[in-house]
Write a structure and sequence with these properties.
Jelly Rolls, WxcM-like, C-terminal, mainly beta, RmlC_Cupin_sf
Length: 139
């Protein structure tokens, strides 16, 4: 199973005109079936707090800074900081995630599937039991 990892996207342009950042075809680890973005999350709120059975995601901070704690099925915890739109975080299935938004941050997510509530694992204990073991990501 692939681990969560950062992907870099090419950008073209200049400081005077701005930049076009491109994510297409062979750069992406999956075919995109849904795109959504999240904005206005208070810095005091921890978002995410779930995993997915099958869904793959590519998460990009299109504005501001977003910090993610991702726990993999082997119970390893990885911390990522997204602070530039030329970089995205690939999150494979069965990875628990917690997301912290900096002031004014906007998160865009490219997803491998359309929304399906049955794909969500919203309780950490259920996640821990599914992947084997116990514990709490907040410890």
């Amino acid at each position: 199973m692939p681990l969560p990892h950062l992907l870099d996207f090419p950008a073209t342009g200049s400081a005077e005109l701005g930049h076009l950042i491109i994510a297409e075809g062979g750069q992406l680890p999956f075919a995109v079936r849904r795109v959504y973005w999240t904005a206005g999350v208070p810095a005091t709120k921890v978002a995410g707090n779930h995993a997915h059975h099958e869904l793959e995601q590519l998460i990009v901070a299109v504005h501001g800074t977003i910090e993610l704690l991702v726990e993999t099925p082997d119970r390893q915890r990885h911390t990522f900081c997204l602070d530039h739109p030329t970089q995205g975080l690939y999150v494979p299935p069965l990875c628990w995630r917690e997301i912290r938004f900096g002031p004014g941050a906007v998160l865009m997510c490219l997803a491998s599937q359309e929304y399906d509530e049955a794909d969500y694992i919203r309780n950490y204990d259920d996640f821990a039991q599914l992947v084997g073991g116990s514990g709490n990501v907040n410890e």
